[in-house]
């Protein structure tokens, strides 16, 4: 925890992750207790005022949360804006899904602190790539690998790709917390490795400065008209619109395009979707991503389905859109 969180003995630490998930166990129980930290555990339902009361009254100094929670705070901004100063809070960290630039700007403006994105998986056992104090934050980037972690963006033949080229995010085997197997699924475990590399299943790119940028899960990347589009970059652009408070992008079968891009959007309370908003959205995506990445369809929803760690459940949206069975939804957040 030292390199990322840079904790001090008198810090008061709050990780908002569910204790049944890997973040809640690793960074919400084992890690902070092993460091002898004072920490907060809260089992109540989400409420913006309750959370900010807790942050202020308990003098939380290090706050580790998720983009989903921060987006919910953004929607409730009127209840907390200018009402809390959080004098004890030093830094905010995020985990569970990519951190959109729009959220970073909001935290800087409203909370008046820096926020650092972190990336890891259950399989990695610990944070592998992260933004942290001492490393300049590039909004939208995952940051850089931690000391001793060798991360690469590789092509299908496992050759290393150059700057800004999308490929598979892979880690060189041998990091201390590397998982040993999938229980009773040894062949699936072996399939995750190619020689010295563990394939994370994520698509990413690495820029000339060594920063990594998340694109999407391999099975989330959309193949539209022969071009690969990552949901995250489109979602990030749409979230910059004041009218949109949450969004999810999926690929749906299409006879002409192979897959068409469908945007599910949740609007700010009291607003309705209009042709004008759709035009604005299309122009933004065209200018900031690509004309190819413009959604073919916008669907207004009351909520975006996510699991308890904050990850968008795209398979649920895709199943609902195509009229298929949504399958197991026991991990969906309340």
Automatic annotation (TrEMBL):
Domain named AMP-dependent synthetase/ligase is located at 3-183
Q: Which GO terms describe its biological process?
A: acetyl-CoA biosynthetic process
- EC number(s) on record? 6.2.1.1
GO cellular component labels:
cytosol
**Could you tell me which SUPFAM superfamilies the record lists for this protein?**
Acetyl-CoA synthetase-like
Give the enzyme's main class according to its UniProt record, as a single word.
ligase
Which stretches make up the AMP-binding enzyme C-terminal domain? 233-311
What keywords sit in the KW lines?
A: ATP-binding, Ligase, Nucleotide-binding
Q: Does this entry carry the keyword rRNA processing?
A: no
InterPro entries annotated for this entry? AMP-bd_C, AMP-bd_C_sf, AMP-dep_synth/lig_dom, ANL_N_sf
| A molecular function GO annotation | ATP binding
PANTHER family noted in UniProt: ACETYL-COENZYME A SYNTHETASE, ACETYL-COENZYME A SYNTHETASE 1
The name this protein carries in UniProt is: acetate--CoA ligase
Q: Which organism is it from?
A: bioreactor metagenome
Encoding gene (name): acsA_15
């Amino acid at each position: 925890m030292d390199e990322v969180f840079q904790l001090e003995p008198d810090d008061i630490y709050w990780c908002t992750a569910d204790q049944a998930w890997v973040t809640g166990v690793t960074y919400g129980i084992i890690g902070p207790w092993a460091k002898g930290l004072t920490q907060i555990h809260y089992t109540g339902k989400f409420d913006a005022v309750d959370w900010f009361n807790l942050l202020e009254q308990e003098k939380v100094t290090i706050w580790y949360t998720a983009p989903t929670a921060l987006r919910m705070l953004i929607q409730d901004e009127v209840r907390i804006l200018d009402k809390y100063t959080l004098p004890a809070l030093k830094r905010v960290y995020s985990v569970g899904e990519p951190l959109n630039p729009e959220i970073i700007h909001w935290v800087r403006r409203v909370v008046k602190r820096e926020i650092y994105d972190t990336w890891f998986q259950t399989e990695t056992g610990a944070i592998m790539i992260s933004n942290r104090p001492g490393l300049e934050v590039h909004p939208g980037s995952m940051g850089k690998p931690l000391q001793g972690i060798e991360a690469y963006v590789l092509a299908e033949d496992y050759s290393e790709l150059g700057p800004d080229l999308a490929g598979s995010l892979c880690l060189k085997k041998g990091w201390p917390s590397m998982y040993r197997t999938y229980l009773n699924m040894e062949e699936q475990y072996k399939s995750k490795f190619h020689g010295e590399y563990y394939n994370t299943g994520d698509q990413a790119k690495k820029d000339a400065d060594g920063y990594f940028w998340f694109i999407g899960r391999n099975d989330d990347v959309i193949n539209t008209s022969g071009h690969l589009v990552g949901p995250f970059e489109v979602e990030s652009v749409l979230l910059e619109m004041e009218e949109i408070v949450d969004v999810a992008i999926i690929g749906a079968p299409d006879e002409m395009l192979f897959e068409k891009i469908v945007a599910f959007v949740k609007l700010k309370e009291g607003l309705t979707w209009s042709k004008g908003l759709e035009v604005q959205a299309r122009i933004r995506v065209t200018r900031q991503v690509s004309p190819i990445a413009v959604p073919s369809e916008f669907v207004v929803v009351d909520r975006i389905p996510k699991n308890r760690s904050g990850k968008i459940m795209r398979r649920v949206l895709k199943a609902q859109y195509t009229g298929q069975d949504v399958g197991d939804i026991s991990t969906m957040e309340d």
